[in-house]
């Protein structure tokens, strides 16, 4: 059995979008034949086959020429490589451990693609056997070139979309998602772009060229040949047509012809619905979010939760003099006025009149109390109602809220009240009989704060693990005896690898995260040479150890066990993605198992807050999604891809070969798990499970997780599949042996201390 080594993470220097936008293209002259060979080779390789034409052209421009003589070595086994090569002519002998294992004889053959992902040793030697011409692309050029090209194209699309008036209501994140779904279509002069009477399925935004829209004038007037006259409308760059296809399934109202060579950005109605939903619904939800933001009561909610609340608001209509709420009845709703006016009865005898954008009933709702006043409709009134049960279902906490579960009695009039667009007369709401379960949930305190002012109060013991910048040790608080983990990071190692931003980001993000499946950060400290993070201690070892032991085994988990562990990860994703945080380094080595058998995700150095896309290549090679490898920009989708790889590894005992176009599944791989992995590991980001309009909920609702109760899981109620054997808080038997005989060599820091001031 081969020894299974732990997977090593890679990290690139952060790519600054501002700098990328001004990056000069690298253009190396080459003939048409060479360009065609390079382009064909790229398009036939899975890493590049899905790239847009402009990005393929950019890579062709950037490739360097290498002339290799017979007997010379193009790449050598064991050397760390950073070039990818395409063969224009010549042949090579492939040698592994000095034995010939094959030949490279084809024009357009390519090798060394792993060098574009990370600086791993070459797996074989390629020795030239006949005069050869190679075209090479180094990793840094590959990343910077594709990132710059992708970002500039993305900016261009965004600028054009912002000119479309019906899209004005989209927020920044929605506009970014839509920009990623845009396609490019080209037409020749005289081409019919849209034909009157056809069913509209996409809208067009003109990037280059022009069109004429031939619109019938509607009065039936004909020319001398008897043809109905029409009005010509000329449109040029920045103009758009066919936009009603996104909102209505209407027939095209006009013929549209290209009057010059035409390039259009196109948005398919089907794709729009897949990634954002119905445009009408999206704009309605955005309007509701704006309304919620204007109310102080919702001020503490992030955008993701605001959207969830907005989608669950119930439209209700009242006629003039209808009773909306009745004093003394138990509060089950609060109301936000959309149009019209409502009158609140006051003890002073003077009624208060509320208008659009104002709310009522919220105080009683939050306190789980009875309404303190009667509210009447002054005129035709349209409201958005928020149910207390919605807050419970969403686990949404508002200031001053008393969490209680409401149970509605069997009053048939009340049962029918919650239907959307329900209109009802005076008294219907007030007549509802409601009972309250006497069960109040207190806000769970996941971690009690500790008062440790300096690391001098700690006594450090055995090493639990090592990393790129230092190690993690058991630490005992001498005053209280509390056992913790102390992560020490050497500032000089951080400086030499230019990871200052990542470390500061890790500190900031980790401090903000409060979730039962995320390792808790108690505090941070520093001295001249090191940074320290005081962490919750977890003694069950890594998920890697459960799967691979000392690296010599490939344990396979059952579907049920895999679903449990994957669900823990998904619960964390649901939490962090709501805050627009992307994790970017999922792997068994970064997952610890606590004494209950539940998981803790650790090591947040690559995590980042991302609204649209980011361009730094980081993560672990076996878990990298295609967009991360290509460097064309990535977001939350990389986390769902990595989850698919993790599920595969748990079920099979090893990671799939992601260098293949398709993942190979061994015989006996569960059918529902394969469907899930294929959904999570879809190469098209916007079609990837988790990246469509339903987001994380789409993944949670997959049949693979049908036995998971998500609320109970987060509360750690179901028993875990396996509990690690732990004797006491000092038992390190679940961790690899790391010898502490020699003291750690601490390098003196040679940089500016001010960089770490906020740590």
Automatic annotation (TrEMBL):
Residue ranges occupied by any AGC-kinase C-terminal domain in the UniProt entry: 706-759
User: Quick one: a GO cellular component term?
Assistant: cAMP-dependent protein kinase complex
What protein family is recorded? Belongs to the protein kinase superfamily. AGC Ser/Thr protein kinase family. cGMP subfamily.
Any single GO molecular-function term of the entry would be: metal ion binding
Question: What Pfam family is a match, any one?
Answer: cNMP_binding
The UniProt entry, under InterPro entries, shows: AGC-kinase_C, cGMP_dep_kinase, cNMP-bd_CS, cNMP-bd_dom, cNMP-bd_dom_sf, Kinase-like_dom_sf, Prot_kinase_dom, Protein_kinase_ATP_BS
Entry's EC annotation: 2.7.11.12
Which compartments is it annotated to reside in?
Endomembrane system
Q: Which UniProt keywords apply?
A: ATP-binding, cGMP, cGMP-binding, Kinase, Metal-binding, Nucleotide-binding, Serine/threonine-protein kinase, Transferase
Q: What is the protein's given name? A: cGMP-dependent protein kinase
Please list the residues that make up the active site: 585
Q: Where does ATP bind?
A: 464-472, 487
Q: What organism is this sequence from?
A: Triparma laevis f. inornata
Q: Out of the domains of life, which is the source?
A: Eukaryota
Q: Which reaction does it catalyse?
A: L-seryl-[protein] + ATP = O-phospho-L-seryl-[protein] + ADP + H(+); L-threonyl-[protein] + ATP = O-phospho-L-threonyl-[protein] + ADP + H(+)
SMART domains, A to Z: cNMP, S_TK_X, S_TKc
């Amino acid at each position: 059995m081969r020894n299974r080594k732990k997977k090593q993470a890679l990290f690139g220097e952060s790519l600054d979008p501002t700098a990328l936008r001004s990056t000069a293209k690298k253009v190396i002259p080459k003939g048409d034949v060479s360009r065609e060979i390079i382009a064909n080779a790229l398009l036939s390789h899975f890493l590049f086959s899905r790239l847009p034409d402009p990005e393929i052209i950019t890579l062709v421009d950037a490739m360097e020429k290498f002339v290799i003589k017979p007997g010379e070595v193009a790449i050598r086994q064991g050397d760390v490589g950073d070039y990818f090569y395409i063969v224009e002519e010549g042949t090579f002998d492939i040698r592994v451990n000095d034995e010939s294992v094959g030949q490279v004889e084809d024009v357009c053959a390519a090798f060394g693609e792993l060098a574009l992902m990370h600086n791993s040793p070459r797996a074989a030697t390629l020795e030239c056997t006949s005069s050869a011409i190679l075209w090479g692309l180094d990793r840094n050029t590959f990343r910077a070139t594709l990132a710059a090209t992708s970002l500039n194209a993305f900016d261009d699309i965004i600028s054009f979309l912002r000119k479309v008036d019906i899209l004005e209501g989209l927020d920044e994140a929605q506009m970014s998602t839509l920009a990623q779904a845009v396609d490019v279509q080209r037409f020749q002069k005289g081409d019919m772009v849209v034909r009157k009477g056809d069913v509209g399925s996409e809208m067009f935004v003109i990037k280059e060229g022009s069109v004429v829209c031939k619109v019938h004038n509607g009065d039936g007037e004909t020319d001398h040949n008897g043809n109905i006259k029409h009005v010509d409308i000329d449109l040029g760059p920045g103009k758009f047509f066919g936009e009603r296809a996104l909102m209505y399934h209407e027939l095209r109202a006009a013929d549209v012809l290209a009057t010059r060579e035409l390039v259009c950005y196109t948005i398919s109605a089907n794709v729009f619905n897949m990634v954002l939903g119905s445009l009408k619904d999206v704009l309605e939800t955005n309007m509701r979010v704006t309304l919620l933001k204007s109310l102080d009561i919702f001020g503490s909610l992030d955008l993701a939760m605001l959207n969830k609340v907005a989608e669950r608001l119930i439209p209700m209509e009242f006629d003039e003099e209808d009773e909306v709420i009745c004093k003394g009845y138990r509060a089950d709703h609060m109301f936000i006025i959309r149009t019209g006016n409502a009158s609140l009865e006051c003890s002073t005898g003077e009624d208060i009149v509320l208008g659009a954008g104002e709310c009522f009933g919220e105080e009683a709702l939050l306190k789980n109390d009875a309404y303190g006043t009667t509210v009447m409709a002054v005129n035709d009134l349209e409201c958005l109602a928020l149910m207390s049960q919605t807050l419970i279902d969403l686990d949404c906490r508002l200031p001053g809220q008393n969490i209680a579960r409401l149970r509605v009695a069997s009053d048939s009039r009340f049962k029918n009240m919650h239907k959307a667009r329900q209109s009802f007369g005076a008294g219907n709401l007030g007549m509802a009989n409601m009972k309250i379960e006497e069960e109040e949930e207190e806000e769970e305190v996941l971690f009690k704060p500790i008062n440790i002012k300096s690391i001098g109060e700690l006594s450090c013991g055995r090493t639990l693990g090592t990393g790129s910048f230092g190690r993690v040790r058991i630490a005992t608080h001498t005053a209280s005896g509390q056992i913790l983990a102390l992560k020490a990071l050497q500032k000089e190692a951080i400086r030499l690898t230019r990871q200052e931003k990542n470390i500061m980001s890790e500190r900031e993000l980790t401090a903000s995260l409060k979730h039962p499946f995320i390792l808790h950060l108690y505090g941070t400290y520093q001295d001249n040479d090191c940074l320290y993070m005081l962490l919750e201690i977890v003694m069950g070892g890594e998920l890697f150890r459960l799967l691979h032991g000392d690296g010599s085994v490939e344990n396979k988990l059952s579907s049920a066990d895999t679903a449990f562990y994957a669900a823990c990860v998904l619960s964390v994703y649901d939490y962090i993605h709501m805050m627009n945080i992307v994790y970017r380094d999922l792997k068994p080595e970064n997952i610890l198992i606590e004494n209950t058998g539940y998981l803790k995700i650790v090591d947040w150095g690559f995590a980042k807050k991302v609204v649209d896309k980011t361009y730094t290549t980081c993560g672990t090679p076996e878990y990298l999604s295609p967009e991360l490898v290509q460097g064309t920009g990535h977001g939350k989708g990389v986390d769902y891809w990595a989850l698919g790889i993790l599920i595969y590894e748990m079920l099979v005992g090893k990671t799939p070969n992601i260098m293949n176009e398709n993942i190979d599944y061994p015989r006996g791989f569960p059918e529902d798990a394969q469907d899930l992995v294929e959904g999570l590991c879809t190469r098209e980001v916007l079609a990837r499970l988790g990246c469509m309009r339903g987001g994380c909920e789409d993944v949670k609702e997959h049949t693979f997780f049908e036995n998971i109760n998500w609320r109970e899981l987060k509360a750690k109620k179901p028993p875990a599949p396996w509990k690690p054997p732990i004797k006491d808080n000092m038992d390190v038997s679940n961790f690899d042996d790391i010898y502490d005989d020699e003291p750690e060599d601490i390098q003196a820091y040679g940089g500016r201390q001010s960089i770490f001031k906020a740590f």
